[in-house]
């Protein structure tokens, strides 16, 4: 890049206003008496004599400058100085500003940018602005180290480059060849130019990451349905895993939660000295957005007691038939010792290297694992697995986890909280639980004989696959007729099912009227429930 010289003074005259025939413009490095070349063309190929001597009319030919600061003096033909300008900023906008320019590329490597600028600078000053073209793409947190343009200048020291005021760079934020603008804020170099990695709107690839939806119930023990056994879906979309059954009771916690959160999952140690964790598997159609790219995982967690010290977390990849996954990603005997990752079953792999996270405390902390490459070949599904890294747990100690987010991109962002109705609808693609309460109705049907009736149900959303049906017990239901008489159900079976609806067949002892409307309801014991399951 070159710049056309413009006179720093509008007059080139002697004290009497006469023409300065043979006047001399001499150019120096700013702040010095060291001559600095100017050029006769914009390619900067041919240097002018220095000083540049005017003709008999006091005029000069075109003078092109490097894109750096100069000191300029004007003298008459007898070398009597008329004026001096220092610094002189080349270009049409020859005004003092706080930009320390350089048309040179940065140098350096390995996330350590080095820049030699075109001004005298002996120390960083709050507000200094630097501009240059990067010579490499960053792969992690990066620094900028500046050297002044004066002879014998020393580097001023590496300063961490920050984006969005106080965030470290992540891979690809600065591309090779990208023009960058940095401002020193007294501590760090704030990157003011746009990031090469355009941030995508945050989208949590996990469902019910804040555990607000609890269709199956809000508390699970060895005595509930479902029970707190390993490889069991409890709070929506989340599987409990443990190295034996009844290791922890599971509760939807709504009191001990971070500010801004409604709920957390509480894991209450029942059987000491065992590992446990939670898992969510992402459907193949959604996992495609992650496969082959980078993602970041974040969550909040805390404990009570002292025995649960460390967590580990990982993104897993499934490389077999899409959606035909093994939900027990490790077996009871393969959890490993403290500080050891569980051995995964066939077709599952770790997409990041799990490491013990910061020590848990009795306050919620945010944990982040960023810039995870989902690059195992032939992946079809992705999962998130969070587990404790301790084998010396104490019964009665609690672990709380909430705001779990897996998102596209190299950086973790704030948790995305959906509306409750949206979260529930997403959950109901995988499970729909109907439990209306004592004497409440499930759906209308029609008697097909004195002892049988058919009941049709429409799912609230299209389910992932045609679901399985779990009936609490046939005796929990009754069929109500138009005259309000109720007949106890003795058998309730599946007639037909699709991803959109289901037909149930109910059997009673007698008294239905073929062709009449009927209503399937709870028998007044408040125990009746229907669970439709198409989980992974």
Q: What do you see in this structure?
A:
The chain has 536 residues and is mainly β. The protein has three domains: 99-191, no CATH class; 219-423, Jelly Rolls; 428-533, Immunoglobulin-like (Sandwich). The chain is 2% helix and 38% strand. It has two helices and 36 strands. It has helices at residues 284-287, 420-427; strands spanning 3-4, 24-29, 52-53, 64-65, 70-75, 81-88, 99-105, 107-109, 112-116, 129-133, 143-147, 155-163, 167-168, 179-184, 189-191, 219-220, 232-233, 239-242, 248-253, 264-269, 276-282, 294-303, 311-318, 348-350, 365-373, 381-388, 398-408, 431-434, 441-447, 452-458, 468-471, 477-481, 486-497, 501-508, 517-522, 530-533. Strands 7, 8, 9, 10, 11, 12, 13, 14 and 15 form a nine-stranded mixed sheet that branches. A six-stranded antiparallel sheet has the order 16-19-20-27-22-25, with no helix packed on it. It has a six-stranded antiparallel sheet with strand order 17-18-21-26-23-24. The radius of gyration is 36 Å and the shape is elongated. Mean pLDDT is 90; it is low at 92-97.
Name the descriptors:
536 residues, mainly beta, Jelly Rolls, Immunoglobulin-like, 3 domains, 9-stranded mixed β-sheet, 6-stranded antiparallel β-sheet, 38% strand, elongated
